Amino acid sequence: MATVSVHYAAAAVTHRGRKRPSNEDAFGYSVEHGVYLVCDGMGGAAAGEIASSQGVEELLRLLGSRDQAAPLPLVAEEAIAAANLAIYSRSQRNLKLSGMGTTLVGLLVDGRHACVLNVGDSRCYRLRNRRLEQLTMDHSLVEEQIRLGRMTRPEALRSPLRNVITRALGTQGQVTPDIFEIEAEPGDLFLLCSDGLTRELPDSLIESTLVADLHLDNLCKRLVEAANKAGGHDNITCLLVRAEG
User: Fold this and answer.
1) What one-character DSSP code corresponds to residue 95?
2) What is the CATH architecture assignment of 7-244?
3) 11 - beta bridge partners?
4) 3-class DSSP state for residue 116?
C-alpha cells in the first residue's frame, strides 16, 4: 500500500496583549523548507525582543539550509546549539543585552516525518481527530514541582514563581533542548504558541476553538482575541500548521 504523502499550510498572528508596552514574541516559518518557529524573549529594555528575533532568524537560516540527507534530530540539535551560542555571544559583547534569552518551540518537517523542538515554556500542541494533545513539556520551576509531586496544578497557576523558566536559549553558552520525532497524519493541526496564550486559555477552550471549520488565519485571530478577552496579560503568539493530504 502506498504511503500517504502530506503537504503543509501555515498561518500566524502575534499581539502585544493588553498590558505589555511592547511585544517580545517573535515567529517565523518557511513552508518550503518545513520550518516553523515561535520564540518568547526575556531581558531588560529591548533585549527580549532582540533575543527572540535573533533566535527565529538564526534558526530559519540554519534549518532552511540544512543537509536534506541528515537525520532531523541531529540537524535540529546542531542548529539550536549554534543559535544559542550566537545569542549568548551577542549578550556577552554588549552589557545592555546581558542576561537576555528566549524560549523556543519549533516544528521541523520532512513529509510525514517531523521533529518537535522545545526550550522553555512555549508549547506545541497537536489536534488530531478533534482531540487536543500537548506535545511539549514546560521547562519551568512550577512544572518541575508538579512532576515531583510537590505542587498541584491549581497551586502552580496561583504561584508567584509561575513565570520562572529553567531553560532558555541564549542565557548560557550551552543549552539542552527537548527534541523528539513524530509522524504527521493528514488532518493533523499543530499549534505553536507562547505562554501569553496558554496562561489565559484552558486547553479545553483552545480545543473547542481549533475544531471550528475556519481558515488558519481566522483560527489564529480567534485564539488571540480570546486570550486578550481573558486578560491579555502577556504577549500572545499563535502559529498554526496543518498537515494536508
Assistant:
1) G
2) 4-Layer Sandwich (3.60)
3) 240
4) strand
Q: Residue 150 in contact with residue 161, Cβ under 8 Å?
A: no
CB-based contacts of 45: which residues, under 8 Å, 6+ apart?
A: 96
Residue 1: pLDDT band (50, 70, 90) is very low
Contact 159, 142 (CB under 8 A): yes
Please count the residues of the chain: 245
Query: Are 233 and 200 contacting, i.e. CB atoms less than 8 angstroms apart?
Result: yes
Q: Is 204 exposed, middle or buried (0-12, 13-18, 19+ CB in 10 A)?
A: exposed
Of 63, 69, 55, the C-alpha closest to 105 is 55
Q: Which residue's C-alpha cell is 526550550?
A: 119
| Domain layout of the chain by residue ranges | 7-244
Cβ contacts of 27 within 8 Å, gap of 6 or more: 12, 14, 37, 38, 39, 56, 192, 237, 239
- Residues 54-95: tens digit of each pLDDT: 999 999 999 999 999 999 999 999 999 999 999 999 999 999
Give pLDDT tens digits for 8-37.
999 999 999 999 999 999 999 999 999 999
Inter-residue contact 242 to 10 (CB < 8 Å)? yes
Question: For the segment 130-173, what is each residue's pLDDT rounded down to a tens digit?
Answer: 999 999 999 999 988 888 888 888 888 788 888 889 999 999 99
The pLDDT of residue 162 is 82
Residue appearing with cell numbers 505589555: 20
pLDDT score for 8: 98
C-beta separation of 139 from 121 below 8 A: yes
Angstrom CA distances, 13 to 104, 141, 146, 147, 218, stand at 16, 28, 31, 32, 9
